[in-house]
Design a protein that fits this description.
The chain is mostly helical. The protein has two domains: 181 residues, no CATH class; 201 residues, no CATH class. The protein is built from 15 helices and no strands. The longest helix is centred in the middle third of the chain and has 27 residues.
């Protein structure tokens, strides 16, 4: 950066010096919206256990690519120099990846792998620019490039396979992508804590938006009393999930990340709490979107086995992610959320027996009952967290 705060017009990466998420980052995230929608549509098109597993594998791979850009833009300013144009190019590649989601395990597998390779290559190229004067960061980028290249190769190989071999190759690619940061030291990475936490909070909000879109898609053009009731219950469930995350959890997590020692401690917390534990939160919301879409389309009929799991089990997965998130950040167990998650998992085998709207009403009422208990039982602690910086949440 030049003296006086004036940025040079240059063709290299400019390091970030602000804490707010930029408009270009939000623009980039719009492509991820399509990717999430495509994953939900894939589940709805093939509502089997195999179809569900494939869609979640695709979602996990896409999530890791998006997460990489969240780390990147917490180091470099995405709106300065050459970075802006590379982000545009990455958006185009990510768009192709999202368009290939419906056929990622079929005829579009190789196109998916090549486009995904382009997304990762541009990410690594920008990180390489940012690390020119930082040997420790450069070492981390090189190690990440090696694991990413192997993972992309496995996805390309998977496009030529089928059955269990194809699933194993996808699983291996995901394991390499996710496991790479555990192999080499975490101290080399850089981030701006408030920006980083806000970026993940916003992408979670985008995922919640997918559940609302699913209500509209499921309802279609036929709106009667049953559809209206189901729609209201659906938005009530989405609102409860929003409350469970943004009321206290997001505030505490951001403060914990900001207070962590810069370097390895802060980076490990960011990796575990956000890159890893936010994925089951988002995956849970995507599963719930499938359940809502099916419910609105068949209000008076029972949910099938897989959509019932998506609605009830998806909410359990979402709450279990919250339990892990709190355990990682505050070192304490959220007993009430764990209890509700266990009850939901126990209810999965019978969740496809009542009419869909009854199942939806039950899970919505259960989640709001949990929130009411927390807001009443821990009112003083909640007030401290929401209005005084540095407070820890109620237990």
């Amino acid at each position: 950066m030049m003296s006086g705060g004036v940025r040079p017009h240059c063709l290299h990466a400019v390091l970030r010096d602000g804490e707010r998420v930029t408009p270009l980052e939000l623009f980039f995230d719009l492509v991820f919206v399509l990717a999430i929608t495509q994953c939900t549509a894939r589940m709805a098109h093939d509502p089997t256990w195999s179809g569900l597993g494939k869609a979640l594998l695709v979602l996990a791979v896409l999530w890791w690519a998006w997460s990489g850009y969240a780390w990147l833009t917490s180091v470099v300013d995405p709106e300065e120099g050459a970075v802006r144009f590379v982000i545009f190019a990455a958006m185009a590649a990510f768009l192709v990846v999202a368009l290939c989601v419906p056929g990622a395990f079929e005829d579009l597998g190789l196109t998916f792998a090549v486009a995904y390779g382009g997304v990762r290559a541009m990410h690594l190229a920008l990180f390489a620019l940012a690390s020119r004067d930082d040997p420790e960061l450069r070492g981390s980028v090189v190690a990440l490039a090696i694991s990413s290249a192997i993972a992309i190769g496995l996805l390309a190989a998977a496009s030529q396979a089928d059955g269990s071999a194809q699933g194993a190759l996808w699983g291996g690619a995901l394991l390499l992508d996710v496991g790479g940061p555990f192999i080499f030291r975490a101290g080399g990475w850089k981030l701006v804590p408030k920006h980083f936490a806000e970026r993940f909070g916003l992408i979670f909000l985008i995922a919640l938006g997918e559940s609302i879109v699913a209500i509209g898609v499921g309802a279609g053009e036929h709106v009667d009393g049953g559809v209206i009731v189901a729609a209201v219950l659906g938005i009530g469930l989405a609102a409860a999930m929003w409350w469970a995350y943004f009321d206290v959890v997001a505030l505490v997590a951001e403060r914990r990340l900001s207070a962590a020692t810069v370097g390895e401690e802060q980076n490990r917390m960011a990796r575990d709490s956000y890159s890893l534990l936010h994925f089951p939160m988002v995956a849970g919301v995507v599963l719930i979107a499938l359940g809502l879409k099916t419910t609105l389309a068949h209000v008076g009929d029972p949910l099938g086995e897989v959509p019932a799991f998506a609605l009830v089990g998806g909410l359990a997965i979402y709450l279990l992610a919250h339990v892990g998130f709190r355990l990682r950040n505050v070192r304490s167990l959220n007993k009430q959320r764990l209890l509700v998650a266990v009850v939901l998992l126990a209810a999965v085998p019978v969740a496809d027996e009542p009419d869909a709207v009854v199942t939806l009403a039950a899970v919505t009422a259960g989640l709001w009952a949990m929130i009411a208990y927390e807001a009443t039982r821990f009112a003083a602690g909640r007030d401290q967290v929401r209005h005084e910086v540095g407070q820890t949440p109620p237990s």
